[in-house]
Amino acid sequence: MGKMVLKIDLHCHSEYSWDSKVPIKLYIKKAEIMGLGAISITDHNDTQSHEKIKKLQSETNVILVPGQEINTLEGHLLIYGWLPTIDRDLSMDDTVTLARKIGGDQIIYCIAAHPFDKFRGGKGKIIFNTGIDGLEILNASALLGRFNSSAKKNSEKLQLIKTGNSDSHRISEFGVAWTEIPDVTTVEEVLINLKVGIAKGERIGIKRKSTRFIRRKFGKMTD
Questions:
Q1: Which partner for 36 in 21, 31, 130, 163 could form a disulfide, CB atoms 3.0-4.6 Å apart?
Q2: What is the distance of C-alpha 121 from the center of its chain?
Q3: Residue 127: band (very low, low, confident or very high) from pLDDT cuts 50, 70, 90
Q4: Residue 3, exposed/middle/buried by CB under 10 A (0-12, 13-18, 19+)?
Q5: Does domain 5-217 have CATH number 3.20.20.140?
Q6: C-beta neighbour count of 104 within 10 angstroms
């Protein structure tokens, strides 16, 4: 019998993001149905989800990892850990430094979200000296496959953590891409084992992605 693995999706947007209306409880319910072992609600520049997942953790076996997606001058940064909302629009280097300073002794991981996706603020190679822990190499919401391919190629070259996530804004997008890690039981163990994670899954269909991109562009993302 092979080793047990945990499927995790650590890039999901809830009702606390301006461009999503998905309740956190719905993510948890679907994670249980799909067999995902851990999820992270990473709302845009917001950590209102943290208090909610603290209360909900006792009701589920799905590990609820605290997270946030922060806008930086060099793109979006996924930050994992029990932190307040980190200031937006700083350099990525300063954002990473600030997150770790505030985090103190706790485990904090900083992963660049869709780093080569120029349609969503990705700046590519200029982020490599910013102290990040890894790259999101499979983002299911990437409009073009080459954005993911570039992230994968560079993460391997630099020996950075590699993650796969849905970047879901609708419940139908959740779990389309994920990361597989060894079977663990705590938030800290999930983060530590990202170092050996394997990104799996696929991208969302081009029609859905194009529609979503247009709606986001004109501020009409309502579901």
A1: 31
A2: 15
A3: confident
A4: exposed
A5: yes
A6: 9
